[in-house]
Amino acid sequence: MLTDLPNVLTLLRIASIPILVALVAVQAPWADAMACVIYVAACITDYLDGMLARRWKQNSDLGRMMDPIADKLLVGALLLTLAGYSKLTLGSLFAAIIIMLREILVSGLREYMATQRATLPSTRLAKWKTGIQMVAIGMLLAGDSTAALIDMPWLPVGRLGGALLWFSVIPTVVSGWGYLLAGVTRMTQAAKSARLASKAAP
Question: Which of 74, 119, 153, 192 sits a CA distance of 20 to 30 A from 7?
Answer without folding.
Answer: 119
